[in-house]
Amino acid sequence: MQQDSLLPAPGGLAAVPGREPDPDAAISVRGLVKRYGASTAVDGLDLDIRRGEIFALLGPNGAGKTTTVEICEGFRDRDGGEVRVLGTDPASGGRRWKAQLGIVLQSGAGDSQLTCRELLRAQASYFPDPRDPDEVLELVGLTEKARSRGRSLSGGQRRRLDVALGIVGRPTLLFLDEPTTGFDPEARRQFWSLIRSLRDLGTTMLLTTHYLDEAEALADRVGVIARGRLAEVAVPSELGGRGRAPAVVTWTEGGARRSEATATPTAFVRDLAARFPGEVPDLAVARPTLEDVYLQMIGEDRA
Ligand SMILES: Nc1ncnc2c1ncn2[C@@H]1O[C@H](COP(=O)(O)OP(=O)(O)OP(=O)(O)O)[C@@H](O)[C@H]1O
Fold first, then answer.
1. Ligand 1 pocket residue status of 59, Cβ below 6 Å
2. What is the pTM of this model?
3. Closest Cα partner for 53 from 26, 22, 28, 72?
4. Within 10 Å of residue 244's Cβ, how many Cβ atoms?
5. What is the pLDDT of residues 158-180, one digit of tens each?
6. What is the distance between the alpha carbons of residues 88 and 248, in angstroms, rounded to a whole number?
7. Does 63 sit in the ligand 1 pocket, CB within 6 Å?
8. DSSP 3-state assignment of 8?
9. Would you state the pLDDT for residue 300?
10. Other C-beta atoms within 10 Å of 80: how many?
11. Domains of the chain as residue ranges with CATH
């Protein structure tokens, strides 16, 4: 291990001693650097994703999410740092390593002339221990479309087909890049339950998304990337100190809307209730949403 960390990383940069990747993590990244010409897209990023968790990577456009994910998938070279994905450096990952990954890209294979079932059968044939294509169609809710051509599917159905293609190889680790873009609200909810059932089957998932409600609904932990670095990692309810943030109590009194930020909302509401003979008019107690704290973090970073 020690020996390994002293080897130069691809691109010639020495790894940082004493900061070896975690061998037990599904994904472990230390000091990742990626440059495109003079601009640095990823700038010393550290990241650990545990086996079995759903991890959501958030960040504004151009923050470096896709670059990081593509390096982890083995699709892109890096200029520095250490990366281990399922214990292997993606820069040298062979077929057996690749067969453990499932990848759902932003633009999938939906334009095909083949039927959904044919596409899945073809994809399954590349893997040593694939799932049954018909079971996968059922899992993603496309059984009725088994004989339909990819190009005849709606946008949301194509995305489901993309997911089906990503999971038919029975991946240990699934990458999902903005998976629900273009879904209607009901399709998103159905997709979320599909993702949860994959987690119940033991699949680790790295998700990038711009939907904060999606990150909140699905992720065990979220990481925010800003300017090529990981700004914070937390469970969704704790991000940006959210769990400790004061609650805001609002109500109507004397014809006017009133509000109070308080660290003890229960006591405050009890006192408030004592002032009214019945219900407190228009009473609401709110904490900052994930979107509130995320936008604040991104705003501070840009300031
Ligand atoms: N092939 C490329 N050549 C040159 N620059 C690139 C290339 N790919 C990405 N970049 C630049 O690297 C930076 C990070 O891009 P990346 O696609 O990783 O961001 P992202 O966080 O995934 O953004 P988005 O949310 O818009 O998908 C951006 O400034 C982008 O313009």
1. yes
2. 0.84
3. 26
4. 9
5. 888 888 999 999 999 999 988 88
6. 47
7. yes
8. strand
9. 72
10. 22
11. 49-73+94-240 (3.40.50.300), 243-302 (no CATH)
Mutating to test ligand 1, I would choose from 32, 47, 61, 211 the residue with most ligand atoms within 8 A of its C-beta, which is 61
SS3 59: coil
Question: CA angle at residue 101 from 89 to 93, to 5 degrees?
Answer: 25
Low-confidence ranges of the chain (pLDDT < 50): 1-18
**DSSP for residue 248:** E
Which ligand 1 atom sits nearest the alpha carbon of residue 228?
14
Report the C-alpha dihedral over residues 55, 59, 65, 69, rounded to 10 degrees: 10
Distance CA(129)–CA(124), nearest Å, equals: 8
Give the DSSP letter of residue 152: G
45 touches 225 (CB < 8 A): yes
Q: What is the Cα–Cα distance from 108 to 203, expressed in whole angstroms?
A: 21
99, containing H or E segment: none
CB of 106 shorter than 6 A to ligand 1: no
Q: How far apart are CA 32 and CA 208, in angstroms?
A: 18
